[in-house]
Amino acid sequence: MNWNPTIKGFKSYLKLERSLSENSVQAYLRDVEKLVQYLEMEELDLQPEKVEQEHIENFLKYVSELGLNARSQARILSGLKAFYKYMLMEDMLEVTPTELLEAPKIGRKLPEVLSFEEINNLINAIDLSKDEGERNKAMLETLYSCGLRVSELVGLQVSNLLLDEGFIRVVGKGDKERIVPIGSVAIKHINTYIKHKRNHQKNIKKESEDILFLNRRGNQLTRVMVFTIIKQLAEKVNLQKAVSPHTFRHSFATHLIEGGADLRAIQEMLGHESITTTEIYTHLDREYLRQAIVEFHPRGK
Q1: Cα dist. 234→13, 150, 201 in Å?
Q2: Can you name the residues that pair with 179 across neighbouring β-strands?
Q3: Left (φ > 0), alpha (ψ -120 to 50) or beta: where does 80 sit?
Q4: pTM of the model
Q5: Phi, psi angles (nearest 5°) of residue 183
Q6: Residues with Cβ within 8 Å of residue 112, at least 6 apart in sequence
């Protein structure tokens, strides 16, 4: 499948006929490129004119499951509508597959997504003068940097930290392991926590000796405790959103998608099951995943 000639024509149309800025043009092109990536992942060898409404509906469902909020989904659909409107004007097709599609309602209940500024405000509200301050900062930076599930965060093992290489090994659903890149900010705070707090903790229970984040009694943190920490921080900064550890995971995925990261890389990092019938796109090259964090994650810059 070769979309390049059509995308090139669409780019010229946006620049010359619609006189859009370079940033706007690139945003439209990224929307189309995301659809192309999805079709490749589904192993659908389709030219632009062969795409049907069902394919686009499934694509929008997929990005929604990754955590993209309704506003961002609506923007992607707007980009695709513009692309197919261009094809219609150029007589490349008679009816567009987006004609009957409606943008998701902005007001419907979807998982909350925090802006980068809101993430910063929450993390910066942690009181580092308290015993648990360094731990909490390292924990939330890791949650946001890696898009972990809360169960994966509390179960993270010291022996699975590959920080010199910029990765952590995560045990996800069904005891499936995956390697996830971790940003330099999270690495810095993990090292600070280990050096100044965890290495000096005397009462570590035998079953928790390899667990990274410990409570004051030397046990693995509970999921509820992580929820409580985040809720208290949200109240402290007067954040008027229902936040949870999963909010950080959705924000991680949304910020990467909106930054232009490859959908396959995001899926791999989140530990989602492959949506293809084969595993052709799973177990992606580690450096490829790492580059996605460096280039597209707000904490990677």
Answers
A1: 45, 17, 28
A2: 169
A3: alpha
A4: 0.65
A5: -75, 160
A6: 241, 242, 243, 247, 250
How far CA 191 is from CA of 16, 135, 138, in Å, comes to: 51, 10, 8
Widest Cα–Cα separation across the chain: 73
Q: Which residue has the tokens 């949304």?
A: 254
Residues catalogued as catalytic = 149, 173, 246, 249, 272, 281
CA–CA dist 104, 59 (Å, integer):
13
Q: Which two tokens stand for residue 187?
A: 């690495």
Give me the residue label for tokens 């994650």.
297
Contact 144, 251 (CB under 8 A): yes
Per residue in 229-276, pLDDT (tens digit) is 999 999 999 998 888 898 898 888 888 887 888 887 888 888 876 443
208 near 219, Cβ under 8 Å? yes
Q: How far is CA 125 from CA 28, 118, 143, 272, 299, in A?
A: 36, 11, 16, 31, 17
95 membership: H or E segment, kind and range: none
pLDDT-derived band at 61 (thresholds 50, 70, 90) equals confident
175 Cβ contact partners less than 8 Å away, ≥ 6 residues apart: none
The first and second tokens of residue 66, run together, are 């990754």
Domains of the chain, start order:
4-89 (1.10.150.130), 116-296 (1.10.443.10)
- List pLDDT tens digits, range 68-119: 777 888 889 999 999 999 998 888 888 889 888 876 654 444 557 898 999 9
Whose structure tokens read 């232009």?
A: 260
